[in-house]
Amino acid sequence: MPPAIIENVIVVGAGGNLGPYIVAALHSAKSFNISVLSRPSSTSSFPSYVNVFRSDYTESSLLQAFEGQDAVVSVVGGPAIADQRKLIDAAEKAGVKRFLPSEYGCNTNNEGTLRVVPLLRGKANTTAYLKEKARANPQFTWTSLITGPFFDRGLQTGFLGFNIADSTATIYDSGEQAGSVTNMSTIGMAIARILSKPEETANQYLYIASHTTSQNAILAAFEKVTGKKWTVHESTTGAAMQEGAEKISRGDLSGFGKLILAATYGKGCGNKFDTDQTLANGLLGLPEESLEGDIRDVVEGKKPKLP
């Protein structure tokens, strides 16, 4: 049975890129008591309104942190993805009602995505484990939030193939394939709204997007905002997959980014959430966002920025 109300929320991995946006959105909702779980060695700082628990991921330290919590929001990355089973087991044992695993990216509920980016299978396995737990214990529920890549940060850093500093773009394939992307503040808002609607959001994948758009549309918006013609380098998602796989085979994890681009801009990965899936933007009351407006804000340094 989905929980009737969620008040006490603990965020695990809140010191990363996305975590501060989630904490800020939970605070803005004015409905939650917010805690964060951080490793003893972490140097991250948190707002004064947050209760900080230190944990070395032993069961006893996790149970202490999760006692009395209604929801756990996991934002862990890298090798810590595999540690989520420890988090899940401790959360259920402590009586937590809702667990959000660390997703917030490509569609891991799609076999095409997992073939392109095998490293994401750990995320899919985590949700499979949550499904087992929820079936065995109806008081324990989950929500996996799929967002596509972080749009504002991906533009700011050049990850999505657009280099603002020198007005160049790498366009994969024809540039016309649409993919879904989401701003970090929108992801934070969505998580707060999910926890505010526990019955409507229990035990399912939810898909959100700030934009479902093509590389060519993004390029056109950049050229309009900057008032100049950009230099375009052409590539293919096949070449990105090959380069990414080769790097990873040599132990170079920078290849992971190339695989993410191939899953975002390529076909067969369920990456157009407005047509391949059912968007939860309406359910969660997320605002309409302007592609040109977001790109202008990134160019002017107004995004990404905490609210």
Task: Quote the average pLDDT.
Answer: 96
- Show unreliable segments: none
Number of helices: 14
Rg of Cα set: 19 Å
The biggest beta sheet, please?
7 strands, parallel
Gap between N and C termini: 34 Å
Query: How many runs of DSSP E, i.e. beta strands?
Result: 12
The coarse silhouette is globular
Q: Roughly how much helix do the residues carry, as a percent range?
A: 40-55%
Order of strands across the main sheet: 3-2-1-4-5-6-10
Taken in chain order, the helices and strands follow as EHEEHEHEHHEHEEEHHEEHEHHHHH
Strand fraction equals 15-25%
Structural class: alpha/beta
Question: What's the gist of this structure?
Answer:
By secondary structure, this protein is of the alpha/beta class. 42% of the residues lie in helices and 17% in strands.
Write the layout of secondary structure elements.
Elements: E1 8-12, H1 19-29, E2 33-38, E3 51-54, H2 59-66, E4 71-74, H3 84-94, E5 98-100, H4 111-116, H5 121-136, E6 141-146, H6 151-157, E7 162-163, E8 168-172, E9 178-181, H7 184-196, H8 198-201, E10 204-207, E11 211-214, H9 215-226, E12 231-235, H10 237-249, H11 255-265, H12 273-276, H13 281-284, H14 291-299
Parallel strand pairs: 1-2, 1-4, 2-3, 4-5, 5-6, 6-10, 8-12
Antiparallel strand pairs: 7-8, 9-11
Helix pairs in contact: 1-7, 2-3, 3-5, 6-14, 9-14, 10-11
Description:
- 42% of the residues lie in helices and 17% in strands.
- It is of the alpha/beta class and 307 residues long.
- The strands form 3 sheets. Strands 3-2-1-4-5-6-10 form a 7-stranded parallel β-sheet, sandwiched between helices.
- Strand 1 (8-12), helix 1 and strand 2 form a beta-alpha-beta unit.
- Helix 10 (237-249) packs antiparallel against helix 11.
- The longest helix has 16 residues, at 121-136.
